[in-house]
Amino acid sequence: MLRRLLPILAGLVVVVLLTLLRIADPFPVQALREIAFDFYQRLHPRPQAEFPVRVIDIDEAALAEFGQWPWPRDRLATLTDRLTELGAAAIGFDVLFPEIDRMSPSRIAAGLPGVDAATLPDYDALFAASLSRAPTILGFSRTPNGKPMTGGPKGGFAISGPDPSERIPFLTGAAAPIPQLRDAAPGLAVLSLNAELSAGAVRRLPMIWTNGSELFPTLSIEALRLAMGISTIVVFGDTAAEGYVDSLRLGDFTVPLTSEGDLWLYYSRPDPALMVSAADLLGPNYQQLADRIAGNIVLIGTSASGLLDLHNTTLGDNVAGVTIHAQAIEQILSGTYLNRPDWVGGLEIVGFLALGALLVVVVLLLGPVAGLAAGALSLAGAIGFSWWMFVANGIMLDPGFPLIALTLLYLALVFFRFLTTERAKKQIRRAFGYYVAPSLLSEIERNGDRLKLGGDVRRITVLFSDMRGFTSLSEKLEPRRILTILNTLFGALGHEIIGRMGTIDKFIGDAIMAFWNAPVDVPDHERKALRAALGMRQKLAELNQGDAFHLKADKAAVAELGIGIGISTGEALVGNMGLETRFDYSALGDTVNVASRVESACKEVGYDILCAEPTYLATQDFALLEAGALALKGKAERVPIYLVVGDDALAGTGAFRLLRTTHAEVLDGLRHGRDVHGGIAECLALAPQVEPGLVKFYEQLPARRADFEVRDTLQPLTPDIAAQ
Fold first, then answer.
1. What DSSP designation does 176 have?
2. Engineering a disulfide at 89: which of 227, 237, 635, 657 sits with its beta carbon 3.0 to 4.6 angstroms away?
């Protein structure tokens, strides 16, 4: 029992270790989870809808028409004025303005003699004036080597609950707009897309940032604030985990955030209607854009590849950074969010523990196929539930870690079973390969747990075989010659045993012990044992006829070899006996002793194959004849024995039927003291036609009258039985 439990305990330890890995949540585990969520988004992106959001794209066409970037700020002032004219609800620049415009005429003329620079246009002043006349937002970017962020946000922040600033992305430095422009714009926001988030795709967008003393909104939040005319953004700290963010509120909109203040981005497919080329807005027919601009939040950015503001999304698209801010606005307006509540991590861990433990138990107890079925069904259920939670509720349950971890666990368990199975098979084949039939060996391999030290009580049929004249041969032939004879004999006789699904227990000198119905079930084991004995008789006759032992050629003391076989059926203790590291599979018990004693009685009876009564009762369709009741060593009462003359085919012949009837009459005469010489003579006349070995039996029969005394337990063959 302990041996079977140890692999399960080891498997459960592996499950616990994998669970600890999930709890630690290193980067590879996080990356795997995010890739799984990316896949979900590709299968089920956020539905496209019409939202009051537009992007003025400084694209390749605009650069081709109006020149390389950066543009002079008088052109940006024109852009801003036209958006204001067309009724934009808010105008956000996803563009940095950290330096003055050196293309401004007043800047160029400042160093020229005789030129009054004050009379020339100042493009920064023009742009600042345009910014001040409209709900505009300028932005700054997080830069590790930038100057510390000074000043505060344009809008107010209120914190409800525990202060979450410890987890919010920190502005170590910033590339900020020049003060002239910053002061003019009603809004100020952070343009950075992430704070050292996972590489490959923009999956989360920080909504709030801090410089250590103040909070700052991202561009999408600030644009919404201005468009809605809201002065204060409320940030909610997580009451269950101090220092963590829960959500923020913007007017009537409550936005769920991660503990670090990020919004999980839920992308929709790129919508061409979202984009408006800056070339069209700066062109002479810009008023035709009024329907697309009026009342909309407008973000200004660039998709031109040379300006290096392209990013990958979870949908696999390469888009301008400004469109990611636009997607965030659309997400908030639609109320469609992705979220991982606090309880999700706990559910994932508990679920993995349960599935892992189930997989360990099923694989190790029921096998890889059952484990594969159970694992596949469990994973299908877990992934199906995860998918339903994603689609129906926007809750992200990790399907990636269970899929990979359980797959690896299954492969490890199968490999472990393979190693242990192969080890067991090698052990089995070493123990039984030379002693049982291949079909039995395969069955034993499937039930290798039976090869434990110890045994169980089974009903078996035992066969003992002993060579006649071995002592005289041993005295006159050299050991090598004796060994050759034994190997030839055992090889031939052992083949007959194994071919009838028998198990060779051992070779004892010139004797063979074999049994049937252990270590695995053998149907009709009594019949198979008798057929094996008859086959051994036939095989020995063939060997003697062909002088396979070279006894005739060597003029040995014995011209032919003979054997005696005793068979008995009954319960016996069968199992492995010896040491844990070295044992033999054997049988013990009275049945074994009876078979040995019956074999020894062959000389007394004058016949080569005898069986005990339990074997006879199970094989009465064979050609069997009563041989009397013998006093066997170790038995208090006489034991009835029977001659194994032939198989069921011989039993159906007329000669055997006649012999059986005459045989019964002779035995009845012996029991009642009548003269049986005439009957014996008839039997001797019939014997050569049936089985020549019977002649010696009948010749010795008159001297064995005591073996046929009337007793209650004896079941003699009667004419009625013979007629069957």
1. P
2. 227
Distance CA 146, CA 429 (A): 75
Q: Is 626 helix (H, G, I), strand (E, B) or coil?
A: strand
Domains of the chain by residue range: 2-28+340-428, 47-110+117-334, 435-619, 650-724
Looking at residue 653, its amino acid is T
Report d(CA 395, CA 392) in Å as an integer. Answer: 8
Q: How many Cβ atoms from other residues are within 10 Å of residue 143's Cβ?
A: 16
**How far is Cα 65 from Cα 60, in angstroms, rounded to an integer?**
9
Query: pLDDT tier at 284 (50, 70, 90 boundaries)?
Result: very high
Q: What is the dihedral of CA 175, 160, 227, 62, to 10 degrees?
A: 30
pLDDT in tens, 569-579: 999 998 876 55
Spatial distance between the Cα atoms of 237 and 259, rounded to a whole number of angstroms:
9
pLDDT tens digits along 650-681: 999 999 999 999 999 999 999 888 899 999 99
CATH of range 435-619; options 3.30.720.120, 3.30.70.1230, 3.40.50.2300, 3.40.50.620: 3.30.70.1230
Q: How far apart are CA 154 and CA 231, in angstroms?
A: 9
- As a dihedral over the C-alpha atoms of residue 479, residue 484, residue 489, residue 492, rounded to 10 degrees, the angle is 160
How many Cα neighbours within 13 Å face the side chain of 16?
6
Coil, strand or helix at 505 = strand
Taking the C-alpha atoms of residue 461 and residue 516, their distance in angstroms, rounded to an integer, is 5
